[in-house]
DNA sequence: CCTACCGATCGGTAGG
DNA sequence: CCTACCGATCGGTAGG
């Protein structure tokens, strides 16, 4: 790992733990065994570091969504989008936290650049949900509100999900996707088995669980 | 409105717009037509202001949840909790934003005090969901994860909901509650009408909507 | 990559 | 409630 990458990695951790404004350049320098001023041999400004972290996270989210085949049936597509989203958070919780929590401190130009990518990301969900509403597999009153609901449920996870905790990322994503589909009024489990059985209502597989 | 309240109101707006650390005491003083040092005739420290805002918001959320009758059926109770939560956000979006976004900058003692109230608030949801799982009206795999899902969907709303926007708070809350119940695997519309019809699956009332 | 420094700004206080 | 000030710290730079 070269010095610049080392700085970015440390910054992602510090910014996520203490916040962008609370972390001083001296704090960051100490974390990579440099003197304060020496950082500027590798980076132009504090805000450049923030942008690189946020931009990197945005790319990860976009790449994850772009990898979901757009011709999948809507329910499966939404499930895959949910899983991709949570995979990014599980893998890069620090950078994801900075992405969600500190991006507003970017300069107007850079903020606008990130906003574009956020819009593009959101569009993947908007499309999948609209498709599902059109074909009748989703039953929601307002697709726009439903999209915001789904993104809200996803975006907050960085606040509490611990990839090293008791529930492994895969299991976490699977259950989360099931609840998202429930919120969208989808009929039942989608991945294995035939098309949903009529007259039986929805059922989350292994319903019950703890209690 | 006395001076102290005036300061708190202005601080709620400024902290929510620019962030706690970006807002200086001089910014705040200017907003209430005072000189910087004069603020300290009314408050002890910047952090005291932050605490008062966050504490006030916590009280509002707790009071809203406490007002939901605990003997209601679980589905209706969850719906009422969702509506209460969103009502607070619709009424005090600024303070709610500070509550969610800046509370971590409190001193350890004050942070712990708020954490207690957050836990108590979360417990209302945990109980309602556990009750619903027990009685079989909710079908989720892991009640703990389901609770976190619901709170995530709610907690993020301060980021995008505009009470003055196109969708009025009541309508917003009603649709949001329907999606939450869907995520919990509840069977259908709950408020009006008889118990859910068997053999018809779930349906959000007026399913379809825009598209 | 370090040393030494810059001007600016911070939260908070004394004294009236 | 104002004026004037405090020490501390900030991001960033020059010169080597």
From TrEMBL, chains A, B:
Pfam families: TetR_C_24 (PF17932), TetR_N (PF00440). Residues 24-43 bind DNA. GO terms for molecular function: DNA-binding transcription factor activity; transcription cis-regulatory region binding. It comes from the Bacteria. Residues 188-211 are annotated as: Disordered. SUPFAM superfamilies: Homeodomain-like, Tetracyclin repressor-like, C-terminal domain. Keywords: DNA-binding, Repressor, Transcription, Transcription regulation. Residues 1-61 form the HTH tetR-type domain. This is Transcriptional regulator, TetR family. It comes from Sphaerobacter thermophilus (strain ATCC 49802 / DSM 20745 / KCCM 41009 / NCIMB 13125 / S 6022).
